[in-house]
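User: Can you predict the 3D structure for this chain?
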Amino acid sequence: MQDIELQQLWKSYDQKLQEQLVFNRQNASDITKMKVKSELTAMRPIKLFTVLAGILWILFLDILVINLFPVGNAYFLISAGFISLVNKIAVGIYLYQLVLISVVNINAPVMSTQKKIAGLVTSTLWVTRILMLQLPFWTTFFLSSAWIGSANPLFWIIQVSITVAFAGASIWLFINIRYENRDKRWFKFLFGSYEWTPIMKAQEMLVQIKDYEEETL
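Assistant: Here is the predicted structure, written as structure tokens:
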């Protein structure tokens, strides 16, 4: 009789223990979901500021291009026009990211949230790659036909060297800014912590949530 009672007590204890483990995992999953949302929400102010600053910068460049177009300074018009175009694309991508952040639902399936995080990762890489393409045009916007016509060989050597160096850097960065290089020092320096780190933290926490849910099943 005592053996039967002991077995029942043991089964009851084991059942309560399992229920407690499931409860703890569920709580851990819920807390982690809130952390994911917090990490993503923290990115919104800086992205919103970037969009507003980008719009003002684009307006400034476009006004300059329109007003100086009759002057016919091709070097400035082409350089400023390309810089403006690149920044317009960047602002569009940042707006897309703001939409992604706003539609993230922490109660949605993990796979759905992971897709949105993947969209943030991909768009962050692409917006940085695209912005790098404007680098060489910052070395040519101030040139003019009259200045070039009267320039001495030393000017040409310095100007061409700087422009080629910036062009080479922009191409190298465009090619090498990839997810596979995220642990490299230059990559971390380029992206900083305010934009890239929250995405990586959210990505890691989503893996934890998925593990919690699988253990609960």
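The first helix runs from residue 2 to 42. The chain has a mean pLDDT of 82.
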